[in-house]
Amino acid sequence: MQTPPREGPAAPRILLAPMEGLLDHLLRDIITQVGGVDRCVSEFIRVTDTLLPDHVFLRRIPELNHGSRTGAGVPVRAQLLGSDPAMLAANAVALARLGAEGVDLNFGCPAPTVNRHRGGAVLLDEPELVHEIVAAVRRAVPAEVPVSAKMRLGHRDESRMLDCARAIDTAGAAELVVHARTKVHGYRPPAYWDRLALIREAVSLPVVANGEMWTVDDARRCLAQSGCDALMLGRGMVADPGLALAIRRPDAPPLAWDDLLPLVATFWSRLGETIAPRARAGRLKQWLNLLRRRFPEAEAAWVLVREVEDPDRVTALLFGGGTGSD
What we know:
The structure is a single chain. The protein is an alpha/beta fold. The chain has helices at 25-32, 54-60, 85-97, 112-116, 127-140, 161-170, 194-202, 216-226, 235-239, 243-248, 257-274, 277-291, 296-305, 311-319, and strands at residues 13-16, 39-46, 76-81, 103-107, 147-152, 175-179, 207-210, 230-233. The chain folds into two domains: 13-248, TIM Barrel; 257-319, no CATH class. An eight-stranded parallel barrel has the order 1-2-3-4-5-6-7-8, surrounded by five helices.
């Protein structure tokens, strides 16, 4: 990729969000090659009543084998999800031993299956337990290992929003990411960025804004309404891998499809090394489906392979029969 232009003094920190089933280690490695991302957070690792073996962490976060960095050198923080403070602490210790850049705690996942098993956003009804979890993990890991958390505005409503934010703050977390919607809101627009200003006033730790940022204008409005100086980008970054650079320097040329296409080809090729052939086309189409929001060429590519499952046929249609073949 081209060397990014020099950033202005007010450029926000930008984190790449964890997105279960989408932003795995392969896609975050590809996206961070474009530039502009300061840190990634892994997909969550579910903790119940077991100390997980090392191979579970290494499969989920292979960057642990490389200094907890992507190929582009971007730090990757490990995320844990669960409700047992002692077991979360024990697994956080294992991650620290493996060299994790930090440990993030998930209080934001809205998935019904996760919530039914007392994980993610449902815990926002229990700020005392949220505090206990963060405090247990903070006590357990070495002082130099950051502990952060991600939450939503609440479970069913915002009535305990500030209680949860304060619980995370007083438990010793170094940073709080807030997705500016409740669990009930899901991912439906809008995101309520103004609520983050209330949270910022209530806590002393840095607050990172997250939710519904697809464009530079969205990011500007979020920064203005929330008062935050850091952003976490998820679907918007997958749809436009150049978004982080564009936010940092809006006057720079936007990422062109011709610059992105080699990375799409690399993603396709590496999928062949990591997942079963029957699932390979689906993963590519999942990314193309988001990319077509920003790139007309991605729309054309998605239409071309929409009903194609055979990897060799996808290769021939999109990459000329050369790049990405098995």
